[in-house]
Fold:
Amino acid sequence: MNAILKFIAGAERWAAVFAFAIMTLALLADVISRRLFQTGLIGAVEIAVFGMIALAMFGIGVATDHGAHLRPTVFDALVPKPLRGGVERFASLLTGIFFLVLTGFAVWIVAESFALGDRTPILRAPVWALQLILLLAFASNAVRFLIYFANPALKPVERVGGDGPPVDETADVAAPQNGEAR
Structure:
């Protein structure tokens, strides 16, 4: 299971880097064209939007893989520490099922767009190819969270506050003594 997670994480990272590069290059070329020739490049903004969509979708997995995704934590204190592991495991199951449902919808949408021959307005690219990004991102996250459910030890520790060091909130931490800092 660890090998599957590593493969998915690597593929998502490369897809996100590629999408960011496409988005950046398309916008840069458009800006340079506007400055030099007083006209933008036809389709550059549409290409940049494709890159942005791919970056956002694959970024879900990248953030999750690093334990840096945003989530509401306001109710965490309501769950007793001995139950937090079980609640997190159940949350992984629900999240995996949620992504499976989204994957099912994405399959349906891709199939419909393919059958109808839908195309983008400017570049006339097939819409199903863009929607395939949604399907891949949802499917990879479904697999990831179902693996986290099956083996919670593989789930990354959350980074509270995003960029800080990983913090395992289920671990017992000794209370500071006599005004000591943690």
